[in-house]
Amino acid sequence: MPKVSVIVPCYNEQSTIRLLLEALREQTFPRADMEVILADGMSTDGTRDEIVAFRREFPDLDVRVVDNPRRIIPSGVNRAIEASRGGIIIRLDAHSKPYPDYVANSVKAHEEGRGDNVGGVWEIRPGAETWIAKSIAVAAAHPLGVGDALYRHAKYAAEVDTVPFGSFRRSLIEKVGLFDETLLTNEDYEFNARVRKAGGRIWLDPSIRSVYFARPTLLELVRQYWRYGFWKWKMLRRYPGTLRWRQALPPLFVSSLIGLALVSMVFPFARTLLIGELSLYFSIMILTGIYMAFCQRKPYLIFGLPLAIPAMHVTWGSGFLWSILESSFRKNG
Hints:
Strands 1, 2, 3, 4, 5, 6, 7, 8 and 9 form a 9-stranded mixed β-sheet that branches. The chain has helices at residues 17-25, 47-57, 73-83, 102-111, 131-141, 143-146, 170-176, 187-197, 218-238, 245-263, 268-296, 301-332, and strands at residues 4-10, 34-40, 62-67, 88-91, 96-98, 117-125, 158-159, 167-169, 202-213. By secondary structure, it is α/β, with parallel strands linked by helices.
């Protein structure tokens, strides 16, 4: 019987699934005490072929695949949990590459009683070798892009609201239930809200590190952050007390732009305020791009960050506001 079950929801991850499996095989934790459960959303690319090839090449690592016909992350997580046998469950993402001591440090934190759900820090890497992909990776780790999300840049262990991926004992699932399959994203935040409500602790340990590959194009980044914003409102309707300032700012910013644009049709002074707000905002973005380009010696950041960070802010905020409108229409319909 394995001591640890690593669970991974995946869908069309042909380009990264091998990197994840190789990183899991290189873990310092004993392979005999570990199993890997991949919940595949019926991939249409070569994801399953990559998994089969890996299993054939490295039979010493117990890797199993279960179907996730709903093709959404929370159902994939749940199907993998149901198929797992380990006492400690460690969730990972198909876009991630854990450090060699990731599993060992996760298990150690649980054995020391640090938290009920324990996670670590993301090290954001580009999803491609293009200048915009590299800019997106910098934006996704910059405080101006993600606010005070400690799992992006924490240096010290601490109790937090949420962690990426996370690890927990099977008994926690028995206590608070599985992941909510009505949420397409934010399912981890909602799960952690239930853990905290039940008196549990969410613990962030920077020694638990993984590489996360950011979206490679602006279009994929826009789709990702629209989805994040849209489903954040769905989650907040159930747990309004979990809203944090970094999450409130994008919808407030987008609301102010829309409001000033509408008012300016009647009152010309609003146009001046709108131009002033946009000028200040993009001045900050450009100065940030110049500063980061100088610090990292990467000139393309002068253009890349003023594209990537606003894309994150505006699409997250727009998705959030659209979710509010859609909920209102359904309620009144």
